[in-house]
Amino acid sequence: SQAEWERLLTSCSAFLFYGMERFLSHVLLNWLVAMNIPKCRLVILLDLVRSQQSYQRITNSDMHKSCLRIALERPTKTAMLLSLAGVGSVIAMQWYTNLEENAERLETLFENLLSIGKTTGQTVHVLQK
Fold first, then answer.
1. Which PANTHER family does this entry report, sorted A to Z (predicted)?
2. Which strands, in side-by-side order, build the sheet including 14-20?
3. 23 near 47, Cβ under 8 Å?
């Protein structure tokens, strides 16, 4: 529910979204732009995972949205909206991927951030390779 999303984002210092399709296809846009979440220093969006079922669901959902709304759900615009809401840093996917590749990214992310202790910038650099 939107209340659960709000509770999670306003009460954490870091937030990880690991899910199918676009993050903003799961969250109400009006709700996000009205939020004030300065305590959340890092949002990691491992979204843009596409399967046949998720593609069908998002296609059906997008038919009821304006072109402007769909454009706001793109990675760069999502990062800008989160930043305007107060998030300190956003790590986001740029292109669609499959479940296996996304799982590998999550493993690399956790290994570099938590086990090795690299900074977020160093970790993003590793993920780009």
1. CILIA- AND FLAGELLA-ASSOCIATED PROTEIN 46
2. 14-20, 42-49, 89-92
3. yes
Report yes or no: 29 and 72 within 8 Å, Cβ to Cβ: yes
Measuring CA to CA, how many Å separate 24 from each of 64, 69, 114?
Answer: 14, 10, 27
> Tell me: the pLDDT tens digits for 74-111?
999 999 999 999 999 999 988 889 999 999 999 999 99
Contact 43, 5 (CB under 8 A): no
Query: How far apart are the C-alpha atoms of 72 and 76, rounded to whole Å?
Result: 8
> 38: which DSSP letter?
T
Give the predicted TM-score (pTM) of the model. 0.88
Which tokens go with 29? Answer: 């846009």
Residue 3 has what pLDDT? 87
Residue with tokens 């890092």: 42
